[in-house]
Design a protein that fits this description.
This protein is of the alpha/beta class. The chain is 28% helix and 20% strand. The mean pLDDT is 96.
């Protein structure tokens, strides 16, 4: 198949391989002669589109024609403009609740004292401030060497979650840092947590303790300015945490306990055709089995937000959805930015024309499930089902929010590839086989098989099997390399 019409009402088709000008393409019984070279993932017109007329893809408008566009012509940013505006008024048109398939599936997880389940049994070192990042890295290296010796067979690894904040922050920025770090400190993937402080920072241990559950036996504290040799004291704390965590063992756990985060980055024109719809089917399988999925990247809902709002479980959740969208649009405009400038140079090179185009592909990661709740940045999950989470498109900031929400892992679709991974296992799913074959050291799963004839149903079951393997201890490609980062949202003044 050389190209695809996604929806019967579309005015464009998407190239599934590189096509040449004057090439003849047969689509739905229509013979189309291309006027231009069309790169894989890019669009071409399948009907004449008048200047000012909406360009339709996925069955919805992705923008408006800047000029007349003839059948067979390349349709992209040179001849299409966005229709997005600022904050909008929305009405609740509730859709019937989708009937989701349930699967009787299990993974081997770690049951915590509070009943939470983790998919990793790791030691996390959380600095209260950037000043002690290097100390945290020294302790991480020490812990991982001890784990590699085989002495602590039930401990999966140690992560130093370094970051640039914790001091000279004011107001909401400081409270956001504290909220996110505290949420990470209680994550079920942790078998032990070392809170590493300096002593004179705004977010010193004494202040930070107000955000923590001090009854959590996984927590230990080291304040570097109080110690003659903070590294030796840190080693002792790590030894204690390793011994404590090593008591934990994996137990058979229902998929209903699984929490997956949904993210895309380095998207291309195939993202909304292969990887994102595949992730959406996986999300529906998890949610249909009483599990949880979380979708973030609010700017990449702009232009498709009504589709999500109509799936809100009730009026109160709909109101939260409206606030989520309009508050984020206000965030853009209050900083003098337009709400529509989101597709990156890489997105555009891959065939994504406008933010509406990107969003309509992006929201497919949420499948067809009812929206059960809406979370603010740094919030921890309270509801099963499909949740929406406040966060930007930025990979690091939004994936950190998914980890702080207590997702077990991130399903990360990409058309161009990235080595980035956050504090929880980050499964990279390629939109195309070329990326999968080229970047096998980055990519865990290939959704590009869809355009090569693989059906969604069988591939979604393969992805589910892979996800359950990761939940049971299989390392992702980024975990094998020790890649992990957190990036905390910052908006205000630095002193």
């Amino acid at each position: 198949m050389k190209a695809i019409i996604i929806n019967n009402g579309d005015s464009v088709a998407v190239a599934l391989q590189n096509l040449k000008a004057n090439e003849s393409i047969n689509l739905a019984g229509q013979e189309i002669v291309l006027c231009d070279d069309i790169t894989r993932g890019h669009k071409f017109a399948i009907k004449n589109i008048a200047s000012g007329e909406s360009v339709i893809k996925y069955g919805y408008a992705i923008g408006r024609a800047k000029c007349d566009i003839k059948v067979g012509q390349h349709v992209h940013s040179h001849n299409v403009k966005t229709d997005l505006q600022g904050a909008g008024c929305y009405a609740y048109h509730k859709l019937p609740e989708a009937s989701l398939k349930s699967v009787d599936a299990y993974f081997d997880g770690y049951v915590r004292a509070n009943g939470d389940v983790g998919i990793r049994n790791e030691i996390w070192i959380i600095p209260t401030v950037f000043c002690v990042n290097n100390v945290a890295r020294v302790l991480e290296k020490y812990a991982n060497k001890a784990i590699a010796s085989g002495k602590f067979g039930n401990v999966d690894g140690c992560l130093a979650l370094t970051h640039p904040y914790g001091c000279s922050q004011m107001g909401e920025d400081q409270s956001t840092t504290q909220k996110v770090l505290a949420a990470l400190a209680s994550h079920p993937n942790c078998g032990g947590v070392l809170i590493l402080g300096l002593g004179c920072e705004n977010n010193n241990i004494g202040v930070f303790k107000q955000f923590l559950n001090l009854d959590d036996e996984r927590l230990m504290f080291v304040n570097c300015q109080d110690e003659n040799d903070e590294v030796e004291v840190g080693y002792e704390a790590i030894d204690t945490l390793l011994a404590k965590a090593n008591v934990c063992t994996r137990q058979k756990t229902s998929i209903s306990k699984l929490r997956i985060g949904l993210k895309c980055g380095g998207s291309d024109g195939l993202s909304g055709i292969t990887a994102n719809p595949l992730i959406g089917r996986l999300s529906d399988l998890v949610v249909g089995s009483q599990g949880t999925s979380v979708m973030t990247e609010v700017p990449e809902m702009f232009g498709a937000e009504q589709l999500l709002m109509n799936r809100a479980k009730d009026e109160a959740t709909f109101d939260k959805c409206v606030a989520l969208i309009n508050d984020f649009k206000h965030y853009f405009t209050s900083h003098g930015q337009v709400v529509s400038e989101n597709p990156s140079p890489g997105n555009k090179a891959g065939g994504i024309t406008t933010l509406e185009d990107k969003s309509l592909g992006c929201v497919q990661k949420g499948g067809s499930a009812t929206v059960s709740d809406v979370l603010k940045y740094g919030d921890v999950l309270k509801s099963t089902g499909l949740n929406l989470l406040q966060g930007p498109g930025n990979d690091g900031v939004s994936c950190t929010a998914l980890a702080a929400a207590h997702c077990h892992m991130v399903l990360f679709s990409t058309g161009r590839g990235t080595p980035f991974a956050t504090a929880i296992p980050t499964i990279k799913i390629s939109t195309n086989s070329e990326l999968f074959n080229k970047k096998g050291a980055w990519i865990d799963f290939n959704a590009g098989q869809i355009v090569e004839g693989k059906d969604f149903d069988s591939l979604s079951m393969e992805l589910l099997d892979y996800v359950l393997q990761v939940a049971s201890g299989k390392l992702t490609k980024s975990e094998e390399k020790g890649y992990h980062e957190i990036i905390i949202w910052k908006d205000g003044v630095t002193m």
